[in-house]
Amino acid sequence: MQNLISITIPTYNGSKYIRECIESIYAQGINTEIIVIDDISTDNTVEIAKQMGVKVIVNDVHKGQVAGKNTGIRESSGCYWLTIDQDDKLVEGALEYLLKEFDKEPDTKIVMAQFKDFCSPDTPDQKRFCNPNPRRGILTGTTMFKKEIFDIVGFFREDLITGDVIDLTTRLAQHNIGIKKVDMVTCARRIHDLNYGRTNQADEYKDYAKLLRQRLSKNNK
Asked: CA 57, 71, 44 angle in degrees (round to 5)?
């Protein structure tokens, strides 16, 4: 649908923060379709999401966060697609701003804004991990895609745990699809005890090494 933004939220035991995440999307006042892809949570994440009126798909087996994003893309009805983590929030006016950036240049396929950390009020001891500066480097909550680009470059690689963004960026470059970068902060990234990025750092290094080996292998052929 024209101007409908489909937003995917991959979840797993996210009951602590999922309500705030969804509320931040509703507060945008923009035409959105929210799709929660749950990886068999053992808490009441699914119940909370259903109570809030969003579409919920529960996996039949554990598939991981990357697979959740792919399922969200397949199930999306919108012209635009964005994903956000279950513990993060969109800032006020984020979606309207991103849409306007597409309107300025109709050929734009992807708009990437910035995110900024905030320390979760329930874990004040994690404040030392908060970076006070806005920055790029993640897609969740910052990057809006015209969904059609996934028909061109394919979906996220599910054999990668945290290196999927690097791989996608590489494929975008191979198809000469640029990313329009803007300075607006659209995502408030929550810093707390169980941040995905921090707890999966070892897997991140493995994925980087895997992608580097594959790239070198292709270059030597």
From this structure: 30
CB-based contacts of 98, cutoff 8 Å, min separation 6: 82, 111, 113, 144, 184, 186
State how far Cα 166 lies from the chain centre: 13
Q: Is the pTM of this model over 0.85?
A: yes
Residue 196 in contact with residue 85, Cβ under 8 Å? yes
Q: Is 62 exposed, middle or buried (0-12, 13-18, 19+ CB in 10 A)?
A: exposed
How far is Cα 136 from Cα 61, in angstroms, rounded to an integer?
32
Half-sphere exposure of 154 (CA within 13 A, CB side): 13
**pLDDT tens-place string over residues 29-48:** 999 999 999 999 999 999 99
Torsion of CA 172, 176, 177, 182, to 10 degrees: 100
Per residue in 54-63, pLDDT (tens digit) is 999 999 999 9
142 in Cβ contact with 82 (< 8 Å): no
Q: How many helices (H) and strands (E) does the chain have?
A: 8, 8
Cβ partners under 8 Å of residue 157, min gap 6 = 66, 163, 164, 167, 168
